[in-house]
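Q: Structure tokens for this one, please.
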Amino acid sequence: MTVRRTALSLLLALEERGGFANLLLSDAVLARAGDDAPLLCALFYGTVERRLSLDHLITGYTGKAIGRLDLPVVILLRL
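A: Here is the predicted structure, written as tokens:
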């Protein structure tokens, strides 16, 4: 699985099930020991930290509220 696909699945799990972001990420980082771990952390935490501003931009460009878009599409656009 690619780093971006892993980040997508982690962000989907965070949105659907809730929980703590650091706990979700720690298992994935341990499984991806190596050069990919920093990229995974940057993608995941960057998306989580900038969620509100990204949602504002997505709403402006799509003309639709975030709640009216499918969750996987929203996550992909945030990434």
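A few notes: The chain has a mean pLDDT of 91. Helices lie at 3-17, 21-31, 36-49, 51-62, 71-78.
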